[in-house]
What does this fold into?
Amino acid sequence: MVVEKQVLPFFEWLWQGQGDSFIDGALFQFLVLAAVLFVLGLVGGFLVSMIRHGPVAAGEITYRTLRGGATDLTRLSARRIGALAGLAIKESLRRRVLVALVVFALVLLFASWYLRTDNPEPARLYLSFVMTATTYLLLLMALLLAAFSLPGDIKSRTIYTVATKPVRSGDIVLGRMLGFSAIGAVLLAIMAVASWFFVTGSLAHTHSVDATTLEPITGIDGQPIGSGGATSFDAFHRHTFTVGVDGKGVTDAALGHIHTVDADDDRYTVGPAEGFIRARVPKYGSLGFINRDNARTGRGISVGAEWGYRSYIPGATPAAAIWTFDGVNRSVLREGADGGLYLPIGLIVRVYRSYIGQIEEGIQGSIQLRNPETDVATSLKIFTAQDATVDTFDFANEQTDTQQDEITILDDLISSDGRIEVVVQCLDRAQYFGFAQADCFLRLPEGSPLWNFVKGYLAIGMQMVIVVAVAVTASTFLNGPIAMVATVSFILLGFFRETFVKIATGQNYGGGPVESLVRLVTQMNVMSPFKSQDPNSFDAIDLMKAADEALKAGMQAFSYVLPDFSTYLGRVRYVAEGYSIPTDALVRDLVVCAVYVLGAAVIGYFFLRTRELAK
Amino acid sequence: MSGAPAAAAADDAPSQPETVATQNPVIETRALSKVYRDFWGRQKVRALKALDLEVYPGEVFGLLGPNGSGKSTTIKLLLGLLFPSDGQALVFGKQATDVSKNERIGYLPEESYLYKFLNAEETLDFYGRLFDLPADVRRQRIDELLKLVGIERARKRQLREYSKGMTRRIGLAQALINDPDLILLDEPTSGLDPIGTREMKDMILQLKSQGKTVVMCSHLLADVQDVCDRIAILHQGELKELGRVDSLLTVADVTQIRARNLSEDCRNELRDVIQRHGGELLELDNPTTTLEELFLSIVRDSEVRPGRRVVGAHHHAGGDPGPDDSGAS
It folds into this structure.
């Protein structure tokens, strides 16, 4: 699922990151980066003016620019920035930015033809579709607006009337960033509202009760305890349901949702679909395995993909996957409708079949809770695993152990330091269950789906703001089309940052840019060695390798300023898959976004300030 | 004489050369040069060669020259839109690249480079906000300026619908939104009809009477002659002539007598007197030359002998250019 990389708590990320000391923290890394960029800018600026004016004048110019920059910082004016932001908004409206909304409406209309609700998880399909459409449309719009605005002003010379007012370059840059971000935010809000109603509207349906399926249900002693039946087949599915004697009941889950059922004498009313859009809050543990020889291992076995994310346990053997959860106490348990306490667990099983068997029936597995200190464990609970769906288990506080003695979770299964283990095994011979750490979690109380949806759109908004900031900065020293291309390259590299870093650090197959180009052109296998014929002499291959090393060093340096857009896309996946976006992630994304805006504004300021506007 | 209003205004303005020289100049350029280069740093054109200029408070100063002579370059250097290749440009004693000098400057560009999607009111409000003016001040100034330039009735119309003349007017209004002390006008009368031109010139004189310094560049010589106290003539980036308009245009060896109600006897007597003193009577009413002639002769001269400053080579007494050049009028 989504949370393959755990989100560090915000302050931990800020102060120490994944390492041990503050050196690995985001703050320190940022400060180092800022210092390096500052020195580079200083040296670069000095060199450029030295070529033009000679070393003495260059020193003076550099000093003046720097000092001017510092004093200008104190002279930024909210009113001027506001005026320029307002101008950017008016300019956007004049450039018919609202057409984007029309396009979005058309996209939704066409989507409703093609998207169907017979998907096993229709909410995921719909949500990921609308959010992806919003992302691309909004980023494109932000790019076009921001990259062409300042070059347009310079070209049409309207900048003359602005730059001859006491306007600081920082006002111009910040005003534009603010204005375009604001108009983008308005569009985003409209798209978000439209998306929400589109998704909820498309998924909304109800059923009637199929009277022929109704049956009374009686208890062991023959007392009637309610009735059960099935709903009509609507929107590609039906539900089975039970209704208690009080006339209240719920259906079983199908396609990721349920309905309430009210029985009033013979009239059964099925309520609207509930639980399509979720905001699960998982609490993750750490995963360990027991192999078929009953020994503890770090990973299960491989079923083909050696470096696959999940590893597997074979069925009908002692092999098991064991998750250990920390900090489990009374507050993690939830109160059920009947007033009892439950330990809510979510489990995702990847099923690997070595033979097909009865494909409809699923594979049997067992799950039990265990105390890591005393090894007291509950009796096995048998379940049928469907591939790649979230199974939910609610373990009541009152359990029986393997000896059929009465135990409780709170008293007997949680260790003195607040740990509890979840043990999962596969029961069918020659079938396999695949697990990764994030596949089992304690279900903390769910967040509001609407708020989670908003958080997802905030993540899209942050991408848009970064794009605006980068594009405006690029447009301070490049002309419109070039600024756009530069920004697009920046964004694309940001989306594939991981690959980019891999190439830069030499972790990929096929070598650096030059080497892979040669391999491409000569159709050379990536595994065959790229070596010169004669190891003693320096030849073309050595030269190419040296060029690659230089390029790779440059790429590695560049990767430090490259935004990781895949994290923002990851946030969208959270929403689509029905997980709550952690607040830590949201705050962190906001900080990263703010830092990009700040950095881009400073760089843009100096570029614009040192540029002759009347050329 | 068509320059009568200018001369009259000059008389009571505080721009008399004697007082001027003791004041700090509003604009001062020292060996200001501009070389345009291409991307590779190769020299394309020397647009301005070592310009030394001083403009004093309360003056109307004209920059004259044919197209490509460096007028606009000078203005852009003074505004900080271009950076000098060499030398210095000081405005109010500050470097021209210092943005804070713009607080006291109003600038009307050659064509009114304004945002066409704003209406007159929004335009002035926008530029007012760029000067960090509070809302009530902006509102008051907008009303005043729209009345001053006479486009009150079109205040809600987008600038894209404006005629050339109206665009010029709103351009002037935006240049005055901050009540500037120094006003730079790039071709202020271009595109205006004769009435509009007249109004623009009256406006310039009105600004002068308010004690403001005006620097304008133009190749419409009549306009310059009418309103400017002093002019500089540029050609191919070089300063060719600098001085008071009235003294530059005075024809020194000709005396003009203007009188009303002279009898024929009196005229004959005048002729006799002139003859007796060995004078040659050309005309009883002999006018000054026009600026146009002066301008053209300078350009012609410069083309024959490039690089040479044309000083006193003509039939006039403006041989000693400078702020303290006090020509008789």
